[in-house]
Amino acid sequence: MPSRTLPSYITPAQIRTYYNQNTETTSTSDISFYEDLASAGARWLDQFCNRRFDPYIATFIYPSRTQTNGGMIDRDGFLLLDQDITEIISLESPSGVSVGNTISFGEPVIRKVRPEPFTAWAGDYIYLTAHCGGFGGRWTTLAATLSTGMNSSTTSLTITSNVLTEGMLIRVEDEYLYVSAWEFVTTPTPLGTAVVERGFNGTTAASHSSGVAISRFLFDPVITRHNAHLMAGYAERQKSPLSGTVVIGDFTYPINSDGIPKDVVTELSRGGYIRPIRIKAP
């Protein structure tokens, strides 16, 4: 399963920008409070839309003829999935025998993984490892490469361009890294140093050579905007929890019974961001 989830779909810098524009103080404890609200907003988006918006790699175990949260293998040998999968890495029997890795995508994802009904693997399970999540977002290559190589345990990286920020999800070759801190200096020569969490979101920490390209994940602007919107809405509810509206900047928003601004629910519903669950036999 993925090692952890991104704290939120907006960076701490974006949170501080909002906080500084809408409050009179900049205490660390208060900013931490907003970061917690942003994280709560991201988890609400995940739950409401039935998908994660950050990319991750995960391994799922599917038993025959038994429904799980991840899907099942039916009596005809078809694998029926309930996961937001974008690319299959491997599909194997318990003994490690590959059963193919091409899948026709749709809702649900279905592939015949056994040639005959009820045939024979010990335990009658199948293991699937796949790229998941990342709906609506994309990887984009940054105008920077690693200045020095990294081994699998290095917790910092250096580049000569000021293109990173705290809270970014980046990729170096096949590994995802989370930028937990960023500092850039211009003298005596331009140099940026990022403190990173290695092997993030289910990937494996590995060695990387100097000069390797770096990519960052860009979230769909709708998701970023609504994550900030929810953070602000939660904050306003702390001030007036019984109100039927929240005031954010110059705008007043109605909220539903769960305290969620109704325009968030409406746009996510109409924009195709909600992933339906439709598991059925082929």
How does this structure look, described?
This protein has about 280 residues and is of the alpha+beta class. The chain has 3 domains: about 20-55 and about 220-275, no CATH class; about 55-130, no CATH class; about 140-220, Beta Barrel (Elongation Factor Tu (Ef-tu), domain 3), CATH 2.40.30. About 20% of the residues lie in helices and about 30% in strands. The protein is built from 4 helices and 14 strands. The protein has helices at about 10-20, 30-50, 220-240, 260-270, and strands spanning about 55-65, 70-75, 80, 85-90, 110, 125-130, 140-145, 155-160, 170, 175-185, 190-195, 215-220, 245-250, 250-255. The protein is flat, with a radius of gyration of 22 Å. The chain starts with 11 loop residues before the first helix and ends in a 12-residue tail after the last helix.
Summarize the structure.
This protein is an alpha+beta fold. It is 22% helix and 29% strand.
Write the layout of secondary structure elements.
Blueprint: H1 12-22, H2 28-49, E1 56-63, E2 71-73, E3 78-81, E4 85-92, E5 109-112, E6 125-132, E7 138-145, E8 156-159, E9 169-172, E10 175-185, E11 191-197, E12 213-218, H3 221-239, E13 245-248, E14 251-254, H4 262-270
Antiparallel strand pairs: 1-6, 2-3, 3-5, 4-6, 7-12, 8-11, 9-10, 9-12, 10-11, 13-14
Helix pairs in contact: 1-2, 2-3
The helix content is: 10-25%
General shape: flat
Number of strands: 14
Based on CA atoms alone, the radius of gyration comes out at 22 Å
- Poorly predicted tracts of residues: 101-110, 112-123
DSSP strand content:
25-35%
Treating each run of at least 4 consecutive H or I residues as one helix, how many helices?
Answer: 4
Instruction: Report the biggest beta sheet as strand number plus sense, adding barrel if it closes.
Output: 6 strands, antiparallel
Structural class: alpha+beta
What is the ordering of alpha helices and beta strands?
HHEEEEEEEEEEEEHEEH
Rounded mean pLDDT is 77
Placed side by side, the strands forming the largest sheet appear as 7-12-9-10-11-8
